[in-house]
Amino acid sequence: MRLLTCLLPLLLCCSAVAEPRTIQLFMPDAPPLALQGEDGHGITGDAAIKALQRAGYRVAVQNMPWPRAQKRTQELRDALIVPLSRTTEREGLYTWVVNIQPLYRAFFTLDDPVASLEEARQRYRLVAVGLGSAQEEILRRAGFTRDQLYALKLGDRPIQLVRRGRVDAWFTTDLEGRHQWDDGPALAMSALLAPQDMYIACSLRCDPQLVQSVHDALEGMRVDGSLQRIIERYVPNR
């Protein structure tokens, strides 16, 4: 009995050590790439959750506006974020864990579609774009002025802004634009532009073991086809 009493604290300690570690995963509401729902968390959300689980971690999903999600990830240690495009401006702000897939952008408009960023810069007076997004960075680098950019606010419906003439075009990922394409008056989509890799990223202060294990898990999902099945679940048939 005395032996059991002595061993009990040790057993409890070992049990606590064996408990899976919980990792915070930050994401915005940007379907089909990331979303908050009972049936899934979008392409990058589901991919990141599955990779973390395969790597032996628990996941605490944190849905919030994109600028705040980025700020919180940068402030914390060992927090993950999706979907993050790897841009020059962001390179030194995060630990880049693993590339999910390339991601293209496009302009959605009622007019004839443009074929380049330069053509769009010359033609469009006002373009809707997500605040703090890679799309905003791309347009600024392409020479769009501050007055040409309409920063989308929470609750804005960009396709309706285009149809009502409040903006000339919406610049977003082709997946998000096609996902929100409804049955109203047809919109024109430009050529696919500005491809960038879409990553699972981590805080700059990130445990190397966490980085390696999630990287390996995602690459395993790519090999066994489970990543492709996640993508096919959300990509609209248009």
Automatic annotation (TrEMBL):
Residues 1-18 form the signal peptide. Keywords: Signal. The keyword Signal applies. This is Polar amino acid transport system substrate-binding protein. It comes from Pseudomonas straminea. The lineage of its organism: Bacteria, Pseudomonadati, Pseudomonadota, Gammaproteobacteria, Pseudomonadales.
